[in-house]
Amino acid sequence: MKPVELSDEAATAALAARVAARARAGDVIALSGPLGSGKTTFARGFIRARGGTGPVPSPTFTLVQIYEPGGPAIWHIDLYRLARPDEAWELGIEEAFAEAIALIEWPERAADLIPPHRLSIAFEPGRPRRARLDCGGDWAQRLADD
Predict the structure, then answer these.
(1) C-beta of residue 8 within 8 angstroms of C-beta of residue 131
(2) Which domains does the chain have, with CATH numbers?
(3) Which residue, 129, 136, 137, 134, is CA-closest to 8?
(4) In this prediction, what percent of the chain has a pLDDT beyond 90?
(5) Concatenated DSSP letters of the chain
(6) What is the Cα–Cα distance from 80 to 109, expressed in whole angstroms?
(7) Is the dihedral of CA 34, 91, 57, 115 positive or negative?
(8) Which backbone phi and psi does 73 adopt, to 5 degrees?
(9) Is residue 123 within 8 Å of 16, Cβ to Cβ?
């Protein structure tokens, strides 16, 4: 897919809302990119677009934040601090993969554990920022249905 230009936080939130409108239980959305590139901003926009209210902090220290705004739960997972990929199982990610929507920051820290049917979004810093979408499973079709 062609890169999406993200001129500001509102553009990132709009992309997140577009993805959120098409997400369903069992979906995995992998968010990669350097620190400060927009991963948490995207997650915050996604959660708000699905009806979440209140603060949406980065789960860097808690590793997992679970939101239940109605519909499937949303697991916001940050794998940055994992020492080994298999530590991800201790977070209960298999439950998220089966029953919830999983937003995973730093997915490369446990790449072999992340299902291949995921939507991967790579954020690139700069002016403007860019997001590259790699659509596994039926994501290309879902995102084309505008």
Answers:
(1) no
(2) 4-140 (3.40.50.300)
(3) 129
(4) 55
(5) -PPEEE-SHHHHHHHHHHHHHH--TT-EEEEE-STTSSHHHHHHHHHHHTT--S-----TTTSEEEE-SSSS-EEEEE-TT-SSGGGGGGGTHHHHHHHSEEEEESGGGGGGGS-TTPEEEEEE-SSSEEEEEEE-TTHHHHHH--
(6) 7
(7) positive
(8) -65, 155
(9) no
The Cα 79–Cα 123 span in angstroms is 16
Convert the pLDDT of each residue in 89-111 to its tens digit.
888 888 889 899 999 999 998 88
Torsions phi, psi for 78 (to 5 deg): -120, 115
Amino acid at 104: I
Residue type, 73: A
- Look up residue 66 and give its two tokens: 């679970």
Q: Answer whether 37's CB lies under 8 Å from 6's CB.
A: no
